[in-house]
């Protein structure tokens, strides 16, 4: 069976990742490192090079058991955390994470309620 180039492009575009699993693991590791280091420029560059959108991969990435936003808050990575918050859908920001808490509930429970990241999340939620 031979796929037409347009059909192949649709199949690739519909998948979250069209790269091998090992490359997915490396991409996730790089993203976690950039979040912890508060390196927004390298994070943006890596996402662009990989041709993925943050909102499409956010739920699939865990950094030491926490989401990207939790990792950013724990690391004091305000630039990256606000970048991530602005790229996610309001639905993602309101959704309960693995422990049943939303990111706002978790931030309040863990002393991050005054952070720039929490402010960006609340602003994003309030605007919709």
Automatic annotation (TrEMBL):
Top-level lineage group: Bacteria
Stated name of the protein: DUF3718 domain-containing protein
Keywords per UniProt: Signal
Signal sequence interval, chain numbering: 1-23
Species per Swiss-Prot/TrEMBL record: Shewanella atlantica
């Amino acid at each position: 069976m031979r796929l037409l180039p347009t059909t192949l492009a649709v199949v690739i575009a519909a998948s979250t990742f069209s790269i091998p699993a090992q490359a997915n693991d490396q991409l996730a590791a790089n993203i976690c490192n950039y979040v912890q280091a508060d390196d927004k420029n390298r994070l943006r560059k890596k996402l662009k090079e990989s041709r993925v959108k943050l909102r499409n991969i956010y739920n699939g990435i865990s950094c030491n058991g926490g989401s990207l936003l939790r990792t950013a808050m724990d690391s004091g990575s305000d630039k990256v955390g606000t970048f991530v918050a602005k790229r996610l859908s309001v639905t993602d920001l309101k959704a309960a994470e693995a422990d049943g808490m939303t990111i706002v509930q978790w931030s309040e429970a863990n002393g991050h309620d005054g952070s720039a990241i929490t402010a960006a999340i609340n602003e994003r939620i309030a605007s919709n």
